Each structure stands twice: as structure tokens, then as C-alpha cells.
Automatic annotation (TrEMBL):
E.C. number(s) listed in UniProt: 6.3.5.2
Name recorded for this polypeptide: GMP synthase (glutamine-hydrolyzing)
Organism per entry: Anaeromassilibacillus senegalensis
Annotated GO MF terms: GMP synthase (glutamine-hydrolyzing) activity
InterPro entries attached to this UniProt entry: Class_I_gatase-like, GATASE, GMP_synth_C, GMPS_ATP_PPase_dom, NAD/GMP_synthase, Rossmann-like_a/b/a_fold
Regions annotated as coiled coil: none
Role played: Catalyzes the synthesis of GMP from XMP.
Amino-acid positions noted as binding ATP in the UniProt annotation, renumbered to this chain: 145-151
Length: 432
């Protein structure tokens, strides 16, 4: 690794990502680790210059108040404390990210003597070196959804190992309208990647039939993805690695020892125990905005880099509860209308993410002068930098009225349109 690093040790804080991002904003790489990290583990990490012990309300685990071990205190690295008392100066956690950054500036540069060498050029060079070292002359199978994360992974792998990469695009029947066709056109025709297209719609929908619990849905989708890749890999020679677009928020939201899980991600903890591949995850320590910066540095087109985020389970977590084909179609069609009208209104690139949800309940309404009992469509639109927090933008009322009228007129089985005003936290961006 070419970058110096600071460790953010989770001592029960709810704001570890704020601290980690503040350090990275200073141009120094940072990682979050659990309170029980050992001095031996730290010694194996490259270029660690200092430790930030980050305290907070979750500082009791299994009935015991947690603390830094003596071996960490005596490991020779300087320690800075936020909201954590350990016989020394305690710095209160500021509310603003910029204030956190200023609190840390002297510690990072004057005390730790860290160099501001965290940038995408160094990151890409490091990852290319690590990928080549990990993979050698073997072949890699990439789960290519066509979203930002997997696209950037593809670009990195193509740069690192070229023709050793085979991309597999699985249509699980939970993609947005026109998306499978677009993925094939961009990656196979325009980028000349080795691309295998698999239509597994019936397979996935059969596995998901009657499954209402969102965690179970995610794990079924994740596990079935791996099975599809295993089957495709058996048709190829020398596939030993599976590449994924896992990013840092996926790992953080899937839970740590002091933080409760927000939700599991299909690529974190949802993989089968008997997985036959070794994983390649070059973006797993990047926040979403850093992934986009990496894509720009790799020369990917802006239309790809700034494409809307889309969850691995796709519309499966936007068709709430047990997935039915008619509600799934309502999600797909209403989402297409929303995206089309946002584009007409010039909101592409101004709103970070927007989509529709169809819950598993109905309400009474009136259609053609008769009583109807149909589903609502919920519109979700948010702005965020790193997907860890999000705010709801103020949208033009006329745009919302146009979208509402089109959905009610064009989408079968829908009689209401609602707009979600909830920020993250307390809500998450997705509903499941």
C-alpha cells in the first residue's frame, strides 16, 4: 500500500464513518475496526500511523464496558480519543464533519506525521498490484449488474488482468425496465468485455415465491446468484475467483460488534458457506462517492459513473413483502415513468437516487365510477454523498403531479401515489 493509514477503533460510537471520512478528506487513508483489534493485527496492517478511539453510546458489550487493551495503548502508536475517557484528554465529538476534520488535523499531520497521499491514482495502482498478486494467471468471474459498483470493478479488473476476466450478467427478473438490454449493449458491444448473459427470471421468482421477510429475500437472491455463477463457471476453464462490487457502506451497515445491523447485503454475509470461489473485492473499503471518483480516474464515461445506485436484490426489495408478478410489474412500470419524468424535468444528476415502491397492501379507491381495491405506489427520492445519511429534496409540485397522473393512468392495479419524506436516519434509503 502506498498510503499512510489511521485506524478508527469503534469504542461504541454511532459516528465511525463520519470520523473515517473526515480523515480521508484530509488526504489520509482510514479504516474502521472493532474495539477488540489486537496489537498483532495492527502490526500486520501497512503504514498505520495512529489510532482514533471513537467512543459513544454502544460502549457496553455482553454487559461489560469496553476499553482499549493495554497492548494497544503500549503498541507505540499515538492515540486520539473522541467521546472516550482513558486517563487522558477526551475530545467531544463535533456535530459537523468539517469540525471533526479540524479537530483531527493536528493529530494526523503533526502527531502521527502522516502524509496526505490518499488519492485515486494511488488507490488504483495499489489495487492493480493487489489484484495481480491475488489472481496470478487464473481467471476471474465478475457479477456484473451494470451498476456503478460492478462497472468500476470491471474497469479495474480489465486494467489489471485483461482477458482473464469473464463478466456474467444475470437477469433475475428483478431489474428495471430495459436494463438487461442496456447492460448487454454497453459492456459487450461498446466495451468489448467477455460477457455471458443469463436469463434466470423464472428460477429466481420461483425461489422467492411466498417469501415475505426482507432478510430472507436478500439471502435467497444472494445465494442463488452464487449458484448461477458456479454453474456458469463450470462451463469455463480455470475460474477460481469471484469478483464483487462490495463497498464500505455494505460492510458497515451489515453490522459490527458494537453496532446493530441495519440490514444485511446480498454480498456481505449472504453468501453460501460452501462457496467454491475466492472473492475479489477491490472496492470494499470505498464509500460511494469514492467509487465514483475511482470510475472517473479509470476513464469510465460519466453516464456510467453517475448512474443511479441500484441494490443487488433489485426490485425484489422494492416489491415489499412476498413478491408477486403483478406487483413486480407495477414497480417496474412506475419506476420507468418516474425516471422518464425526472429526466424531462432536468433532475438527472441533481437528485442522487429516486425510485418507486409497491407495498403488499391495498386501499379502497374509485375507478370508472366504481369502487376499486388497489395498491399504492410510493415515490422515494433522496440526496446523499456517501449513502450513510440522506435527505429528501424539495421537488416541483407540478412534476410530482405529472408523475402521479401518469402512474395512475398507465400502471395496472394502482389507485394511489404517495411521496416518502423520511430522511436517513431514521429511515433507510431502501424500504427493505
Amino acid at each position: 500500500m502506498r498510503q499512510d493509514m489511521l485506524l478508527v477503533v469503534d469504542m461504541g460510537s454511532t459516528r465511525n464513518t463520519d470520523v473515517a471520512r473526515a480523515i480521508r478528506a484530509l488526504g489520509v487513508y482510514s479504516e474502521i475496526c472493532n474495539y477488540d483489534v489486537t496489537a498483532e493485527e495492527i502490526a500486520k496492517m501497512p503504514n498505520v500511523k495512529g489510532i482514533v478511539a471513537n467512543g459513544g453510546p454502544n460502549d457496553v458489550v455482553d454487559g461489560q464496558k469496553i476499553g482499549l487493551s493495554d497492548e494497544i495503548k503500549n503498541c507505540g502508536l499515538p492515540v486520539f480519543t473522541f467521546d472516550y475517557e482513558d486517563n487522558g484528554t477526551v475530545h467531544p465529538m463535533p456535530k459537523e464533519d468539517e469540525a471533526i476534520q479540524e479537530d483531527l488535523r493536528s493529530f494526523v499531520f503533526d502527531t502521527c506525521k502522516a502524509q496526505a497521499n490518499w488519492n485515486m491514482e494511488n488507490f488504483i495502482a495499489d489495487q492493480i498490484e493487489l489484484i495481480r498478486k491475488q489472481v496470478g494467471d487464473k481467471k476471474v468471474l465478475l457479477a456484473l449488474s451494470g451498476g456503478v459498483d460492478s462497472s468500476v470493478v470491471a474497469a479495474l479488473l480489465l486494467k489489471a488482468i485483461g482477458s482473464q476476466l469473464t463478466c456474467v450478467h444475470v437477469n433475475h427478473g428483478l431489474l428495471r425496465k430495459g436494463e438487461p438490454e442496456q447492460v448487454v449493449r454497453v459492456f459487450k458491444d461498446e466495451l468489448s468485455a467477455n460477457l455471458i448473459y443469463v436469463d434466470a427470471t423464472e428460477r429466481f421468482l420461483s425461489k422467492l415465491e411466498g417469501v415475505a421477510d426482507p432478510e430472507q429475500k436478500r439471502k435467497i437472491i444472494g445465494a442463488e446468484f452464487i449458484r448461477v455463477f458456479e454453474e456458469e463457471a463450470r462451463k469455463l476453464d480455470g475460474i477460481e475467483f469471484l469478483a464483487q462490487g462490495t463497498i464500505y457502506p455494505d460492510i458497515v451497515e451489515s453490522g459490527t460488534k458494537t453496532a446493530k445491523m441495519v440490514k444485511s447485503h446480498h454480498n456481505v454475509g449472504g453468501l453460501p458457506e460452501d462457496l467454491q470461489f475466492e472473492l475479489v473485492e477491490p472496492l470494499k473499503m470505498l464509500f460511494k462517492d469514492e467509487v465514483r471518483a475511482c470510475g472517473v480516474a479509470l476513464g469510465l464515461p460519466a453516464s456510467m459513473v453517475y448512474r443511479q445506485p441500484f441494490p443487488g436484490p433489485g426490485l425484489g426489495v422494492r416489491c415489499l413483502g412476498a413478491i408477486t408478478r403483478d406487483r413486480l410489474e407495477a414497480v417496474r412500470e412506475s419506476d420507468a415513468i418516474l425516471r422518464e419524468e425526472f429526466a424531462k424535468a432536468g433532475l438527472e444528476g441533481k437528485v442522487w437516487q429516486y425510485f418507486t415502491i409497491v407495498p403488499d397492501f391495498k386501499s379502497v379507491g374509485v375507478r370508472d365510477n366504481a369502487r376499486c381495491f388497489d395498491w399504492p405506489v410510493i415515490i422515494r427520492a433522496v440526496n446523499t454523498i456517501d449513502a450513510m445519511t440522506a435527505q429528501v429534496p424539495q421537488l416541483d409540485w407540478a412534476v410530482l403531479q405529472t408523475i402521479t397522473a401518469r402512474i395512475l393512468q398507465e400502471v395496472k392495479g394502482v389507485n394511489r401515489v404517495c411521496f416518502d419524506l423520511s430522511p436517513k436516519p431514521t429511515a433507510t434509503i431502501e424500504w427493505e
